[in-house]
Design brief:
Elements (H helix, E strand, L loop, with lengths): L7 E10 L2 E11 L4 E5 L6 H8 L9 E4 L2 E2 L8 H6 L1 E5 L10 H11 L5 H14 L15 H13 L5 E5 L7 H18 L2 E6 L2 H6 L3 E6 L2 E5 L1 H5 L6
Helix pairs in contact: 4-5, 5-6
């Protein structure tokens, strides 16, 4: 197998939530094209790892790199540039409810340095087509179903052609059928574009049906396990 540089790498890193350390000695590498699940019960530090990757939580012990940026002591002015190299998808969509789908996406493009109106509209159309929502550009978020809103959130995460999509419980607020559609979309992006995916979930049915690498958080640690072993763990709420 060819030698690849990881997009995300932690070595002996302590992950914090506020003042408390929730995971000790994290070792994790995410490579181009990987699909990595971070699983475990509620409160085991899954989301704290995500927040550390996007430089929302500080990293003060061990080492951590994400998309070419050193997470130890990262400067505030560098954090927006780090986040432009990754797409982030949240459980609660986090769309701007006072503007249309089109304006949600254009807002992100303008905020991340795009200048040409023509180029922005071409990119917006491309990502909406990628998630099957090209006919919904003029809709307001409240006019869309939960699954449609999450598809728009995924389209938003693709705008700057990220190296990795960070997805924090992206199916958590969706029914099983809708969640299945979102997983097919994410796995398709991973397969067809080679975009790495790091996904937090406590739903074992998801990583059983859509295989990937599995990092299990428990007892203040997070270690990679074989998927079939992880499926046997008590992970769900």
């Amino acid at each position: 197998m060819e030698d690849k540089t990881p997009i995300i790498s932690f070595k002996d890193a302590d992950i914090v939530n506020g003042e408390a350390t929730v995971i000790y000695g994290l070792d994790m590498d995410v490579y181009p094209g990987d699909f990595v699940y971070i699983v475990g019960k509620v409160g085991t530090g899954k989301t704290s790892i995500i927040r550390t990757i996007i430089a929302e939580n500080p990293l003060s012990k061990g080492s951590g790199m994400a998309c070419g940026y050193n997470l130890v002591g990262i400067r505030d002015k560098d954090i927006p540039y780090l986040r432009r190299r990754m797409g982030v998808v949240f459980q609660d969509f986090q769309l701007l409810m006072d503007r249309s789908v089109e304006e949600n996406l254009l807002f992100v493009l303008r905020a991340t340095g795009w200048k040409s109106e023509e180029d922005m509209r071409k990119r917006m159309t491309a990502v909406l087509e990628a998630v099957g929502m090209e006919l919904k550009a003029h809709k307001m978020p409240h006019q869309l179903s939960g699954g449609e809103q999450q598809r728009i959130a995924i389209a938003r995460s693709l705008l700057n052609d990220p190296q990795v999509i960070i997805a924090d419980e992206p199916t958590g607020n969706l029914d099983n059928e809708t969640a299945d559609g979102i997983m097919k979309l994410l796995t398709g992006i991973n397969r067809d574009k080679g975009t790495a995916i790091v996904m937090v979930t406590h739903n074992r049915q998801i990583f059983e049906k859509y295989p990937g690498r599995v990092m299990v958080c428990k007892e203040e640690t997070c270690c990679e396990q074989k998927a079939d072993e992880a499926i046997d763990l008590e992970l769900t709420i």
